Structure formats: C-alpha cells, structure tokens
C-alpha cells in the first residue's frame, strides 16, 4: 500500500494503490518514485491513469460517454463559480486576532471584553463596493471593513466601512443607491466607477447623501493601503452589561501606521500598473511578518448625551465628532495569517450584522435594522444552502449545538434519536436562560407608519463640517474629484443640481466646481429641509493629512538603479530603510538587476516598464555617469521621475541622476522634497523627511499651474 500523503485536499487518503505514474517530457508515462507525489484521483478517490487525453474511439475518432473522469472533471469546473456579492464583490481577507486591553465588564457582558490580554481569533475582509470581483483595487469607492470575531459566545460580525457615515438613512433605499452606482443596465458600463449619470442623478435627488459624498470625493476613497485606513461600525450600537444596563457605542478601528491615501492621478495609473495593488500590499506585509494592526476605539455615551447632541444618534448619515466625544481604546486587531485558499475563506466568508454575542445589541438606526434583515438572505442566495455555517470560515470556534438539520451539503446533523426541544429523553442541547442572548428590553411605542423623523433632516451641517476640517490640499482634491466625476455626467441638469447642493455646503467649493464645469450661471441653492445650516467647529480628526503617520514605517521606497550604481550609497540606503521598518524595491533598466560600482551583482525587483513610481511612497535615483546615458532615453524612466514629482513625493537622487531630472523637466523646480543623497546630515535625515510622505506645498504649481 502507498503511504498516506501530506497534502491537504480530499485526495490525501486516496493513495491506495502501489503504482504512481507521471508523464515525461515526451508525453510518455513513468512510474513516480515512492513519496515523490501523491496519486491523482477522481473526486471519488479512484486513481487516474491519464489526465491528458479524453477517452475516444481510435486516435482521431469521437469521444465516448464512458469517460467518467472527464465528465466529473468538466462538470465540476462548470460549477466553480458562485454568485459574486451583489455589493462588495471585490475583496481580500486575512486571519488574525483581537486582543482586549482591559475588562469592559462595567459596560458589557460580552465575553471577549471581560479579560485583559485575552486574544480572540478574527477574520477580516476588505472590499470595494461597486466593482465586480475582477475590477481594480484603486477605484474611487468606499472600502468595506468587515470583521468577524470568533468569540466564546458565538461569532460577532462588525460589518463596517472605512467611512463613518452612509449615503442613505433608510435601508429601503439600498437597492436604489446600489443600482445607481453600478454599471448602467442598458450598456453595462462604467465598471467600478461612480462617475456617470445614474449615480449623480440619484445623489443629486437625495440630499441625505451629501455628507457621505464629501467623504467619497475626498482622498478617503482612494486609500494607499488597507493597512493605512480607518474602519467604522457606522451605526450606534448598544453595549449591555450583566445588570442589563445599556450604553450606546460607536466602534472605530484606528490603523497603527496612521492614515494615508494616494493622489487621484496616481490611483488611475496604479490601476493600470497593478490592479491588485491593495491585495498585494496586504499579502506582502503579512507574508513578511509586518502584521497590520488596528486599535479598536469606542465612543461610549448615554441617553442624556444622545438627547443633548445636535444630531440624532440613530441617523447613519451623521457622526459624533471625536473632539466632542473622545474615542477610548479597548483592544487591538492584528492580522497575521493569509488564508490558505482564497475561495474557501475570503470568498465564502459570510458576514451578517445580526451576528452579535450577548452583551452587544442594536439601536433603532433604521439602516442597521434593515441590514439585520438583509444579510442572512444574501448568504443563502450566494452560498446556496442554509448550511453555509458548516464551512470552516463561518463556523463558530466555540462549542455549539442545535437541532437545525439536513439541507444541501449538510456536513453536521444532530446525533441520536432526538432532534427537537423540549424532549423527555434528556437528549440534546438545552436553552440557557442566564447565559443566553437576551435582547435589551427597550420600551417602544408609536403609530405604525412610513416616515422619516424630523431629527434626521439636517443634511448639510456635517457635510460642511467635514469640508472645513480638511487641509487645503485635501479641499482641493474634493473639488477636483467632484469636477472629474461630474465631467463624466452627460446631463447638464444633473451637474447643476449637484452644484445647487454644494452651495449649501461651501460657496467657494461650489464656485470652483461650477467654474470648472463651465456653468454659465450659478443655480439657486438646493431647497433644504432645515433652513439654517449649523456652523459647526472643524474636527481635525476628519483630515487624513492631520492624522498621517509622521514616519515612513510600513511604506515602500522605490530605488531606480543603473549599472555602476554606487554600492556603498545603495547599501547604506537600503539599510537605513530597514532601520525605519520600511521596505525598498529596486527598479532596473533591464530584467534581473545591475552591476554595482564594486562589481557586485544587485538583484532588482522590477524592470523599469513594470515598476513605475506610482507603486512607491517615495523614490530614489541612484545611477552612474555611464548608466544615466541610456536611462534618459527611456520614456518610462522619465515618467518615473515626472510622476513622482507631480504626485508630490519625496525624491532622493545622487549627482549622476541630474540628467534624468532635466529630462523629466523638473531640474529648475527642485524643492525641499527633492534631496541630494547622501545629503549633508546623511541618509537617516532623508528617511525622516520621508515620514512626511508628501510635499503638498508643491501641488499648486504642478497641478494647478500656480507659482
Ligand atoms: Fe452592506 C455586504 C458594509 C449597508 C446589504 N456590506 C457588505 C460588506 C460590507 C458592508 C463591508 C461586505 C462584507 C464582506 O466582506 O463579505 N453595508 C455596509 C455598511 C453599511 C451597509 C457599513 C451601512 C452603514 N448593506 C447595507 C444596507 C444593506 C446592505 C442598508 C441592505 C439593506 N451588504 C448588504 C448585502 C451584502 C453586503 C447585500 C452583499 C454581500 C453580503 O452582504 O455578504 O447583504
């Protein structure tokens, strides 16, 4: 008998025969030495002799229906796809754990929050909303931030986004907003874009979306990496303690490495250069042991706070500014393992907002309640069976027992005679009145009707607050994004209607956009349900630039090298990058690498055509007198430098690279972000400058032609 093999799939134990074969270069079959490879089998475990040719009559004759191996293989293949998620189809996940800092027993009886230092396994899936599974990572879009924590009292799914508010206030509008943003139904484009008539038509007719629109037009919607973005539970939830006392809570995930986004022009180019930019980033970080981390912070408040707050805490288009209610850190989430198989885990993971353990409960936010209704249905459709909880990625990791049975692909059925409750055979699981989930007994009353509360009616105050909380470059990006998006809208009335809303948010913003759109005259401000917009204080927590990392840790330096590169300088720079817990990748004119000044061979990660500067957070040009001559002839080398400059990146260069700066047309525009290397104070000075990430002061001259 053959030995049992060590591979993981179902063919593991199917090596039941002695002879193993493999095909040689000429197509002939050889016996595989014992232990060399497992035997290929059918899904039924039968050994396969020939997996290269179908069964046929004669060498050139018809195929025969006896070919059970072919039929099984092709039929299985035909069924490989499951419906993609109706939203958030493109996503990428990773495993990790949640660690509780201190006991939160005063607020919640949720088991995972009881003991300081306790680690609970978790799985996170990040996603874009509008694009299909095969779309590109850097679409301007909201990012999903869905966290499943496998607690000892059942799975807790916090299905959030990287933006703390939402487009709509009532779940009944969800199909409309999603239909509007997805490709238009007659032409099936544009893919993964909100820049089209249907989206802006719906938005301009839906004033409650204005706050969210400010966020989506900001750089929040083009994050540099999943690792550098925040996550938000969005809604107000409840924490409930052992005494059945409830505290309202909003959940926030804060990235340890700070916030960072890319520039729009960069996003467009990244999508071409590396459509998997965000996936690759997460994969590389985790595979290299640089585990991404977020802190869970909570805004806790009671009914008195809710009553005194300017807005309704049940309105998902509003946030509570951090300056008014400081979020408190309660734990951290670390992602430290990629799935073994994308389909089995990331594709089949099923998040549901209604998955909450005892101690976490809902508020009456109508969007949240509508979501609680929707998510189970979508998993039934998508995964095809109520037994999707049998999949390892969805199964609880705590003991569980119930009488649900049968159905497609049931892998677990009740054992024994009894499959009902109550029973007098003393068999099977029983309810736990004390430990089991009890809904918070909130008292409710009112007439049954379809209405929106008046307390949800102010749609512009927080939209303005977001806008005025941004730094000047961030405000410019919002104006540019609105202009770009609306420039793709064919219907002039929609463009005008949007400007009429912008007038209620900020007149200068409206004027900038109107001017770029070529509006002949300014429309009237949109009629607002609430007459007076509140003048709220700016909230610095809303700016990305204000909350950047101030260090280069976790970022990537791209070093363009040529033959003859100064070996000492290059080694010094790569060492300095490592010291700063960042990474660098080398880009060379040819595939393979370059020969350095000391004759050593230096491996490069990219050939220049495949390694444009948009893939890096900053760049360095380390060349040589001989190498630069050929390099300046490469259009891609020129773009490498010109793009880095226009995207306001730091550029380090050694003296030999000056001709390339000239070729890129920036030699007379060198500013504090273009630094000669090694520099007077050495390379660590360059590295600490990189911590600023961008030279935003450069932007008006490169992008807007201002001196
Ligand atoms: Fe949703 C998926 C986040 C409103 C209905 N949603 C989905 C995912 C995220 C969110 C991150 C992807 C989960 C994954 O990775 O598998 N959704 C949100 C947030 C919302 C929101 C933060 C507002 C605050 N969603 C929302 C509403 C509805 C839905 C109002 C319907 C009433 N969402 C769904 C869904 C999806 C989904 C159709 C599609 C795939 C899935 O559930 O698993 O049920």
Automatic annotation (TrEMBL):
Its EC number is 1.11.1.6. It comes from the Bacteria. The keyword Zinc-finger does not apply. SMART domains: Catalase. Residues 41-429 form the Catalase core domain. Belongs to the catalase family. HPII subfamily. This is Catalase. The gene is catE.
